[in-house]
Design goal:
Layout: H1 19-57, H2 63-72, H3 77-88, H4 108-117, H5 132-149, H6 153-162, H7 164-171, H8 189-209
Helix pairs in contact: 2-5, 3-8, 4-5, 5-6, 6-7, 6-8
Length: 211
């Protein structure tokens, strides 16, 4: 019957004007907050994942000996960690094509020279270079002896990698040095790369561990 006909929407509860709009806005805000929290959590996880990965790539191995001899010879531990990582990847049994051995890759001649300049006056066999403490001790001593002649860190690293004779020759050549102290160019590509690599690794150690 016409008298019982219902108007469209007649059975719906009364909603004051504007309430649906407010609900929709509140819903959108809640969604945005949830998305922001999820994004923050994902960023945090990525950050910690990255740090864990990088710490695995830049480990603090043999820290007892690194810290001990860094302090004794007045070097930054981050510098020694960077050098060991670059030289041997923390492999105490590493041997190069040139016959350099152990963590800090010392040759037999360099080891004998370092022992002759050591206050301890030791006479150790070359096999001792595969002992981590002995290698770090004499490797750091070599760096200390080089620092007496080469005050610039880049030049010191060039001498450690390519030899004292080459470093002296380059410093005396105007094509490679303007002041006889720093090297503006290194003719050995391997050594030039090495001199850049160590400071980069040192910076990474500082960033990862606050050294």
């Amino acid at each position: 019957m016409a008298g019982n006909a219902h108007s469209p929407g007649m059975d719906r509860p009364y909603v004051p004007p504007g309430r649906d709009g407010r609900k929709r806005r509140l819903g959108r805000r809640a969604l945005l907050v949830i998305l922001a929290l999820l994004l923050a959590a994902a960023t945090l996880l990525l950050h910690f994942g990255y740090r864990r990965y990088m710490r695995a790539a830049y480990p603090l191995e043999y820290s007892e000996y690194v810290e001990k001899y860094a302090e004794y010879y007045d070097f930054d531990p981050a510098f020694l960690y960077a050098l060991i990582r670059t030289e041997s990847g923390f492999d105490p049994d590493a041997v190069s094509r040139a016959g350099a051995m152990g963590l800090m890759q010392l040759t037999e001649d360099t080891f004998l020279w370092a022992q002759s300049r050591s206050p301890e006056g030791e006479s150790l066999p070359v096999s001792e270079l595969f002992d981590p403490e002995t290698n770090i001790h004499y490797g750091t001593l070599v760096l200390s002896l080089l620092r007496e002649e080469f005050s610039d860190t880049g030049t010191l690293l060039a001498a450690y990698n390519a030899g004292i004779g080459n470093a002296r020759r380059w410093l005396a050549d105007p094509a490679y040095s303007d002041d006889g102290v720093t090297l503006k160019e290194i003719p050995y590509p391997e050594t030039a790369k090495y001199v850049e690599k160590i400071p980069a690794a040192e910076r990474m150690y500082r960033e990862l561990y606050g050294l």
